[in-house]
Amino acid sequence: xxxxxxxxxIAAFVIPLGLDLHMPVPEDNPITVEKIDLGRRLFNDRRxxxxxxxxxxxxxxxxxxxxxxxxxxxGVFGRRGRRNAPALINRGWGRSFxxxxxxxxxxxxxxxxxxxxxxxxxxxxxxxxxxxxxxxDMSRAMATYIRSIMSGDAAYDRYVNGDRAALSxxxxxxxxxxxxxxxxxxxxxxxxxxxxKFHNTGIAWAGPSPGAETAGAFRDEGRAAISGxxxxxxxxxxxxxxxxxxxxxxxxxxxxASLDEIVDxxxxxxxxxxxxxxxxxxxxxxxxxxxxxxxxxxSLSGTMTR
Length: 306
Prior knowledge:
The chain is mainly α. About 30% of the residues lie in helices and about 5% in strands. It has helices at about 5-10, 35-45, 55-60, 105-110, 110-115, 125-130, 135-145, 155-160, 170-180, 225, 260-265, 285-300, and strands spanning about 150, 200, 205, 215-220, 235, 305.
């Protein structure tokens, strides 16, 4: 028989159907059961917030694909965050993190909310002292836990792997729209339905502003605040579409409340301005095509590890 810890590790890291079987893991942070367990405990530990009122799980709830069903989440002392809490599923395959890609590794990302004044507002040194875990061990354990959060084996995955009864007729029609007329695969590609790149979908555009650049004014500079490139103004990372039915509201600002609103927004081509991604243009979907596309998006909810 396998040793119990080995058995648990295998169980924790069975890659669900539909996902890339290779997950890139840093050589200096190999996956262990102990780190997954410590990371899970830290993820749920309210001591990591200044007043002990919230934990990471407060904004990334497993019931909502590790997101939050609010436009923006509330941090300590009722402070409002700047952006919608993204789903944390399948981040082990991510190439950049946060809506604007401000960090390149999970090990760096997991500590950012602890320090953020609008989130947990605690220095890493104080957080480390409170839980009795070094900053490096906190970082490595929490990153490892997040790598263990996966979603796959959805109806779509079973369908493309040969089970032709897995998708409803509506969802099959929606898949054809997704790949064809809708051109959704321009950004939502691969096993995780994201190119992990940054696109301006027009959501952050506030309209023309006197004295502003030709692109107009943006409510959120997005990627440009990190890259320093004007052409990145209002651009945000493509989110995964897996578990999208469970992760409303949508977009970086939580401004679209439902899958129907998402489809309507892209169908009309987004908010027009000079920096709008060239892939966005009016599509002209019919009512049945919109209904089918939503059915397909729902088929991307599957088996989710926690």
